[in-house]
Amino acid sequence: MSFLPDESDYDIRFSDLADEAKLMEWLTDEETRRWYPPSSENDAKMWARNWMGFSRFKASLTAIYKNQPVGVGTLFLMPYIKVSHMCMLYVCVSPAYRRRRVGYSLIKNCKHLAKTRFYLETMHVEVFEGCPVISLLTNHLEFTPLFEQQGYVQFTPGEFRSRLILETRL
């Protein structure tokens, strides 16, 4: 299996509102949605719309492979001056293209975008305990744990998991 960023048909561009349909498609996948805050399909639709709204500010990137979106990374910019030096990052990759460095590529490019376009100093990522992306963030992308809230999210009745906030300085 090859890494997509090494392929000539791979590119990253600014997201546009048309990418919302693909993001929604990925978020309706049960295995994907379990790692994100929305629990219902309706909540996921509203969340995806909010997520893609940041494309108006050029704060969202879409990974393209063979002219099709395969991943989206978005900087959730803070609206208040006191916290405008930081952002929250969310990334979603098509289930068919995971473990092929699409997420890694999107995060690296989002970090660069945050630093050079928005002059941000800090980036945070929210992940739930057990999420497969934690090791990528901490071992390869210089994120460190900021705090953990135990029992924050209920995955199934009686199964609670921690929410971790990871941070990187830009």
Radius of gyration: 15 Å
What number of domains? Answer: 1
Shape: globular
User: Between the first and last Cα atoms, what is the distance in angstroms?
Assistant: 31 Å
Secondary structure tally: strands: 7
Per CATH, the class reads Alpha Beta
What is the CATH homologous superfamily assignment? Gcn5-related N-acetyltransferase (GNAT)
Order of helices and strands: EHHHEEEHEHEE
Uncertain segments are: none
Structural class, from helix and strand content? alpha+beta
How confident is the prediction overall: mean pLDDT?
A: 93
Helix content: 25-40%
Number of helical elements = 5
| Main sheet strand line-up | 1-2-3-4-5-7-6
Provide the β-strand percentage band.
35-45%
- CATH architecture call: 3-Layer(aba) Sandwich
Topology (elements, then pairings):
Layout: E1 10-14, H1 20-27, H2 30-33, H3 41-53, E2 60-65, E3 68-77, E4 86-93, H4 102-116, E5 122-128, H5 134-140, E6 144-156, E7 159-169
Parallel strand pairs: 4-5
Antiparallel strand pairs: 1-2, 2-3, 3-4, 5-7, 6-7
Helix pairs in contact: 1-3
Write a compact overview of the structure shown.
The chain is an alpha+beta fold. Helices cover 28% and strands 35% of the residues.
Structure description:
The chain has 5 helices and 7 strands; from the N terminus they run E-H-H-H-E-E-E-H-E-H-E-E. By secondary structure, it is an alpha+beta fold. The chain has a single domain, classed as Gcn5-related N-acetyltransferase (GNAT) (Aminopeptidase), CATH 3.40.630.30. A 7-stranded mixed sheet has the order 1-2-3-4-5-7-6, sandwiched between helices. Strand 6 and strand 7 (159-169) form a beta hairpin. Helix 1 runs antiparallel to helix 3. The longest helix has 15 residues, at 102-116. The radius of gyration is 15 Å and the shape is globular. The mean pLDDT is 93.
